[in-house]
Q: What sequence folds into this?
């Protein structure tokens, strides 16, 4: 699991433009809150630009465009329809937050899947206080960015702006902490396998 920040691999993928659509959206969402990761992205982009510029016959990198990507990730509080969502996510959803058609998934857990791209499922999740996702593992990678409330995963608590990165080695049981619903972005690559006492039954419907 990550410590609430983008991993070096995600920083590099985002900075070089190699990140899949869902991964790029999760990274951009986290970057609206995290100045430290924005500086790390800027450093990677500068290095990538220098390498491109040093290649024989290469065109100089457009540093204004590169820095513009960072400017676009500043928190935008001017959109009244966005609710707790950062600007990149609100734009991707394209619907007023108050009008999101949440779908029941589990007791206390609701989802709005708004995109499938590059094999990823991209969803908003709303988990009511005390509710949890049953224990599960992943076939690939799951990125989760918290926008409201808090997400407790094992001994780690993710607060607003934090990103959780879970790979196939992680067997976890995330739940909403605090006294408000946890609103988060979930980018899921590959399937989910439930592992808890109810796992066999849940796997029949997943």
A:
């Amino acid at each position: 699991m990550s410590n609430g920040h983008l991993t070096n691999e995600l920083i590099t993928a985002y900075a070089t433009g190699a990140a899949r659509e869902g991964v790029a959206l999760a990274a951009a969402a986290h970057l609206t809150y995290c100045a430290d990761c924005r500086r790390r992205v800027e450093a990677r982009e500068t290095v990538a630009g220098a390498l491109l510029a040093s290649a024989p016959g290469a065109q100089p990198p457009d540093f204004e465009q590169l820095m513009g990507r960072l400017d676009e990730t500043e928190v935008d509080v001017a959109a009244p329809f966005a609710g707790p969502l950062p600007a990149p996510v609100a734009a991707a959803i394209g619907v007023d937050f108050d009008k999101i058609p949440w779908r029941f998934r589990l007791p206390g857990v609701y989802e709005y899947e708004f995109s499938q791209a590059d094999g990823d499922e991209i969803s908003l999740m709303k988990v009511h206080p005390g509710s949890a996702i049953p224990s599960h593992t992943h076939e690939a990678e799951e990125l989760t960015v918290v926008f409201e409330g808090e997400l407790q995963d094992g001994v780690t608590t993710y607060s607003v702006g934090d990103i959780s990165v879970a790979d196939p080695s992680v067997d976890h049981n995330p739940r909403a902490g605090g006294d408000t619903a946890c609103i988060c972005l979930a980018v899921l690559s590959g399937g989910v396998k439930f592992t808890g006492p109810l796992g066999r039954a849940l796997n029949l419907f997943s």
